[in-house]
Design goal:
alpha/beta; Rossmann fold; Dihydrodipicolinate Reductase, domain 2; 7-stranded parallel beta sheet; 7-stranded mixed beta sheet; 13 helices; 29% strand
Amino acid sequence: MSKIVVLGAGMVGKAIAIDLSKKHQVLAADIDQDSLDYLSKNYSIETVGVNLMEEESISRLVAGCDLVVSAVPGFMGFDTVHTVIEAGKNIVDISFMPEDFMELNALAAQKGVTAITDCGVAPGMPNMIVGYYNEMMEVENFEYVVGGLPRVKVYPFYYKAPFSPIDVIEEYTRPARYIEKGQLLTKPAMSEPELMFFEKVGTLEAFYTDGLRSLLANMQHIPNMREKTLRYPGHIQLILALKTAGFFRKTPITINNTAIRPIDFTSKVLINDWKLGPEEPEFTVMRIEISGRQDGQNKKIVYDLYDEYDAGSKLSSMARTTGFTATACAELILQGRFAGKGVFPPELIGMDGDNFHFVMDYLAERKVNYKKTETNL
């Protein structure tokens, strides 16, 4: 039995801690005592209340563990991973940090640490899938669309956030990078919306976001790559209005002699309106498309994911699909299946067919099912 420290006990961190506690000794750390109390009262999980923005606190926490899983908000992600690597501990991270985590690669290699980053549903599984097929075929086109949405649409946003609103806003403001005909291009986030139909959901709106991340470097030989986020139609027009009006700006303004960043104010206001209820029905939908040539034949591979809130475990779909991807990769490290030293995004994990199938089987055992369709063109 391994000892694992899970940093962050929010919606996704909770799912990670619960899953890993079935086989391992788990310590969950967070500043939110209510989240910790839920875990300690309902599961065999040790908890500790701590401010995870304090480097020394993290260093003390992880000192005696075998593995760390970081489920902190994105703005804390880079510093958290850096601290854990400095402590010489292997780590799996889902934080969706804005910084380039590959800047920590040399340090991780020097410390003999295995760090798997961006290890969620997306980014995460699309990376792993394209990494796997990149080893078997000449990939010419790769794209995916993804969204986590409430089952019931509530005016005006038609949206609930399964994680921190500031991370969602970051997704809406970060310029979107993509590759077209071998050229790296950039568009504003939320640009080029298009309507797409999904069988169990209906019509959703897809728009550019910056989800390719490490794929831009590790899969730059693929001539066409793009990623889009899915929302209910109408949501993005309202977000664009807020953005245009300055509600997402990071330069402080002064109100009644108090300096405040508009993005912090907006996040605080939206947190209640966007907060997903503990048992609120929601779903995750994703479509990953890969096309290219294999053995002289043009092929197209499509993976479809549709997953819903699980009433039995009372875990949201986004928490399960994200968290279980992370715990699958945690098991790769704990079982000695992957032992590379340095920082590894999921596409590098998926290049090994055994690792890829291990993760897919692990998710299927937890009823997170990716439906594959393969056609010759």
